[in-house]
Amino acid sequence: MKIIVTSIFVQDQDKALEFYTKTLGFVKKHDVPVGEFRWIALVSPGEQDGTELLLEPNDHPAANEYQKKIFADGIPATMFGVADINKEHKRLLENGVNFTMEPTKMGELTIAVFDDTCGNLIQIVQK
Length: 127
Hints:
Layout: E1 5-10, H1 13-23, E2 27-34, E3 37-43, E4 52-57, H2 61-72, E5 78-81, H3 85-94, E6 98-106, E7 109-115, E8 121-126
Parallel strand pairs: 1-4, 5-8
Antiparallel strand pairs: 2-3, 3-4, 6-7, 7-8
């Protein structure tokens, strides 16, 4: 068994698509109309067959409530791996990203947390 798609709830699919592609650097793999919303899936650059990140609308009341509560409690919605967290932190700061936690060493890992502007906190980690 293998993870092929994971999703993150977003408040606005267009805004999320712009942030996740232009600011974070993911690549759009699918953008298909599905009723009033779209199936928008992103992949890591150079990994077209890798795990897809689905930008899921938070239109359902339970999704909206879940997203608001974990954000309010400071819980990241997902985690992305980076090779050099300090370099990535600097790049994202230069692109206007707001960090709620600066790079912090935690055992063998270094983590940082930022606001994706779409209702989520995102954690980046360097192993």
